[in-house]
Structure formats: C-alpha cells, structure tokens
Amino acid sequence: MLRAGVERSLLIADDVIVIEEPRVNNDNILSLYVETYFNNCDIVIVEGFKEDKIFPKVILLRGKELAVRSWYDRVGDEENVIAMISDQDWPVPYPRFAFSEMREFSQFLIDYFLLAGKKK
Predict the structure, then answer these.
(1) pTM of the model
(2) What is the distance between the alpha carbons of residues 1 and 25, in angstroms, rounded to a whole number?
C-alpha cells in the first residue's frame, strides 16, 4: 500500500490491528514510537536500530566474518550495550551468552530490568 502511494493504512481484524505508515528519518523515532504505543509496557523488544544509543541494547552476533567484525568494532563497546549473545568468544565488558544459554540470558534480563526499575 505504501509503495502505491498511500500515506497511512489501517488493518483491523478480529484479533489484530496493524497501522502502516512510512518511516520518517528522525534520530528519535524509536523513542517516539515506544512512548506513543508502548508507554505502559515494562519491556519492548525491537529488532534493528543498531545505531540507537538511548535504549539498553543486546548484541546478537553469529560468525566471525569481516562484516561481523567491522560491525562489532563500531558498536561493541557502546555504553547502552548490556549483553551479547554470540557463538564466538568476543572480549566484551558485559555479560556474554551462547545461543544455547537462553535460560541464563532470560534470567539476566529479568534481573537487569528489576534492578533498573528500582533505580528510578
């Protein structure tokens, strides 16, 4: 619909509502959408937004190719990175989990956000 020129579309079914609109180039777009649509949520999981430096970030890296290394060199030590999930042994200053350690990672997230909520 967007490619056909529609500014915004709304799809409503029995069990879902979908609003589709073009993404604007705005450095704070993630914050805007979280505040608008998810302000009562305890946690919002978003894929992408690698350049965002506002929200806590978990890095998922698979492999050790040059492209992965290049990306890691750019964002691997950002202050908002709280953990990494990887199949490689990256030397990072935050908790690193293997893909097989999802139970431990889940507990880490619970503990992290419980502690973060107490700091507010």
Answers:
(1) 0.68
(2) 20
